[in-house]
Structure prediction request, 90 residues.
Amino acid sequence: MIFADGMSSAVPFLSLVGDAHAVIGRPATPGSVAGVARRTTRRVIRRSAIYVSTLPAGCVRTSVNGVVVWRCGASYYQPYGSRYVVVYID
Prediction:
């Protein structure tokens, strides 16, 4: 029991607590901590030893974990000085 402001009337504890709206057991939801951790740890950028001076046609600039890369079909390239290095996204 809780007493407020020194009053002698008792206030039931459960009347002060609202309904909980958490969804338990749903780690795959986009906003959950487990879902965010899974996505950020899965995407690792590995550089190769393959360099090109120009990108193939039809490339789209995108960001992976805050790093700018170019997606050209199934291949990814990262700017490196005046050329581009082929990278692999794991």
